[in-house]
């Protein structure tokens, strides 16, 4: 597994560029689901947070959901939303999937620490990922933690030939019910983002100023 983030940015597989986001949003299970070249939703090559396609939440959408459903302060919630969208864009992973993993791992508590020493939103375990964490200054920082966690999940997706169920098993260290728990969170989180016409970003961002 190549964990060099700088080198890997230019080596994303074309297969993972075509996301199965439609399948994630429509279904409640990851069995048999893969990120493949014939998937129907493609992540844009450049971030476009002022013109996000219908069905893809904005950072403000995510922040509102986290504030209402998980009681996260708007300032921290917006940072999480921005971190998730940036990681989803870079690693070609559904932002809904990343949010679901974070919900299972830490319930959006950026200060969470497990008994095994896993830290932050995506519960990064320094002892298992020394080559990545070595250069991370603060695993409680949303941007840092989500960037690393998403990169690890991306590697597991590639190692699993795009099989989301298998990649989640690897991410959890083999916990058998982990993919189901993540799928359950996907089902809950996706209801916060109904597909509807976008309100201009300038209007939705105003409440976060």
Description:
The protein is mainly alpha-helical and 209 residues long. It has one domain (5-195): Lysozyme (Orthogonal Bundle). It has helices at 5-8, 14-17, 21-26, 59-70, 74-91, 95-106, 130-133, 142-159, 164-172, 178-190, 201-205; strands spanning 18-19, 41-42. Strands 1-2 form a two-stranded antiparallel ribbon. The termini are far apart.
Notable characteristics:
mainly alpha; disordered N terminus; disordered C terminus; 11 helices; two-stranded antiparallel ribbon; 209 residues
Short description:
The chain is mainly α and 209 residues long.
Distance between the termini: 41 Å
Q: Can you tell me the CATH architecture?
A: Orthogonal Bundle
How many domains make up the 3D coordinates? 1
Number of strands: 2
Helix amount: 40-55%
Strand order of the largest sheet: 1-2
CATH structural class: Mainly Alpha
Draw up the topology in text.
Elements: H1 5-8, H2 14-17, E1 18-19, H3 21-26, E2 41-42, H4 59-70, H5 74-91, H6 95-106, H7 130-133, H8 142-159, H9 164-172, H10 178-190, H11 201-205
Antiparallel strand pairs: 1-2
